[in-house]
Write a structure and sequence with these properties.
Radius of gyration: 21 Å
Oligomer: single chain
Largest sheet: 11 strands, mixed
Bound molecules: glutamine
Strand order of the largest sheet: 1-3-2-4-6-5-10-11-9-7-8
Shape: globular
Structural class: alpha/beta
Distance between the termini: 26 Å
Number of strands: 11
Length: about 450
């Protein structure tokens, strides 16, 4: 904890932390020491973590990197953080992210972007998003591990951009209670770590049934670490042909092939699979996620939480809502609210939201059919490109940024677990990541495949 606190201060240039909690860290570390000395401490005991700003942490600013939640200090602890702290983990501070987890570059944060510790010459690169601060802090050694959340790739894409491991568990594996909601039917929290083993250990601490989240699964949490045998002999790995999209960089294609070879060398069988509805995933996601977001964000009205605009003499409640929300939400969040409200409106509901829901069911069925045919895991790239430069994607067309999520949103729509694992560097020395997609509730087996790639 002491060396992480020092590193954290020396690493300010990465803008990874948005609130530091050194006093709390020292207090938790002392308590952890006592438990370790007493000799029966859980694996997470004394491990210094960074916590994404999306998690409500009791008495500590939890703003989802948004101005509308300025000064919000929850009176409660999210289930995930309370489980981690219960196991003796230490919180170093809150980590930067895209505002309300909307984005793929951390540039929509009210604190300004986090910076990727990897760079090419003097070019500053994005750590990805939305869990950009988490990935930057882990890769930059500003913590041992971090929490992330993933609605459409926000754990896996930044993990790939920063050369670390990140797993999005099966929907329902980890409680969403106390995590500021983006799109509730897609959101899952997960660990972002330096190794597959760390991910297995930390996921076990985060996971488990929670009566406070009605979508949390009442299933036992296996020992994911025990699943890391490295033995994948006889397993079938599917390579989905639809993921060979236009714009896929040759270096990504190369590591995809290399990853398949590594799995084959370890005794797995590589087979071609088809997930025919893949091309509809991105448009369906960018209807469903904003729809749910527009509803979830309705609660930020200037009354219940955080910021309220200064009002003029004749202003009534409508002006209060309008001014507060116009000031409090950034441009990307406003765009999502408008899209979401539009696709849910009476005249367009069937054309957009209902159609997207049908597409979602078809995407889920594609995966079910692949798994029913005996596939154990599916191997894809995590992202179509390595980390891009800060500012490079802020063109007039937000869709360009959305295209970065082409490989990651499919499994949020299907509720499946997925892990990003670093597999080599590109010619500039930047990390490249692959994604493995697993059967529901089999995160241990999934992590074991990732273990072979590591
Ligand atoms: N980039 C995606 C979005 O902006 C994913 C975000 C996420 O997973 N939280 O919606």
């Amino acid at each position: 904890t002491m060396s992480c606190l020092t590193a954290m201060d020396a690493g300010d240039a990465l803008t990874a932390y948005v609130h530091k909690t050194p006093e709390m860290a020292l207090e938790q570390a002392r308590a952890a020491d006592a438990r370790l000395k007493a000799g029966d401490a859980p694996d997470m005991c004394g491990i210094p973590l960074g916590i994404k700003d999306l998690f409500c942490t009791k008495g500590v600013e939890s703003q989802a990197a948004s101005n509308i939640l300025r000064g919000f200090k929850p009176e409660y602890e999210s289930t995930v953080t309370s489980k981690l702290f219960g196991d003796g983990a230490v919180m170093l501070g809150k980590l930067n992210m895209d505002e309300f987890a909307m984005g793929s570059s951390n540039e929509s944060s009210c604190y300004g972007p986090a910076v990727n510790p990897w760079r090419v010459d003097d070019r500053e690169l994005t750590p990805g998003g939305s869990s950009g601060g988490s990935a930057a802090a882990v890769a930059g050694d500003l913590c041992i591990a971090a929490t992330g959340t993933d609605t459409g790739g926000s754990i896996r894409q930044p993990a790939a951009f920063c050369g670390i491991v990140g797993i999005k568990p099966t929907y329902g594996r980890v409680s969403r209670w106390g995590i500021i909601a983006y799109a509730s039917s897609l959101d899952q929290a997960g660990p972002m770590t330096k190794s597959v083993r760390d991910a297995a250990i930390m996921l076990r601490s985060m996971a488990g049934h929670d009566p406070k989240d009605s979508t949390s699964a009442d299933l036992p949490v296996p020992d994911f670490e025990a699943a890391l045998t490295g033995d994948i002999r006889g397993k079938k790995i599917g390579i989905p042909r639809e993921y060979r999209v236009p714009g896929l960089r040759p270096e990504i294609d190369r590591i995809w092939t290399r990853g398949a070879e590594m799995l084959r060398d370890a005794g797995a069988e590589i087979i071609d699979v088809s997930l025919p509805h893949t091309k509809y995933a991105l448009p369906a996601y960018y209807v469903i996620a904003p729809a749910e977001a527009s509803s979830n964000l309705a609660r930020y009205d200037g009354v219940r939480y955080g910021h309220r605009a200064k009002l003029g003499a004749g202003d009534g409640i409508t002006e209060m809502y309008e001014k507060t929300r116009a000031e409090g939400f950034g441009a990307e969040v406003q765009r999502r609210i408008m899209i979401g409200t539009y696709v849910l409106s009476a005249g367009f509901y069937d054309a957009y939201y209902n159609r997207a829901r049908k597409v979602r069911a078809l995407i889920k069925r594609d995966f079910e059919q692949a798994f029913a045919a005996g596939v154990d895991a599916i191997l894809t790239p995590a992202t179509p490109t390595p980390a891009f430069g800060l500012g490079e994607m802020q063109s007039a067309d937000p869709v360009e940024m959305y295209l970065n999520d082409v490989f990651t949103v499919t499994l949020n729509l299907a509720g499946l677990p997925g892990v990003a694992v670093p597999v080599g560097l590109d010619a500039d020395g930047l990390p490249l990541g692959l994604q493995l997609i697993g059967r529901p509730w089999e995160e241990g087996d999934l992590l074991n495949h990732a273990y072979v790639l590591e």
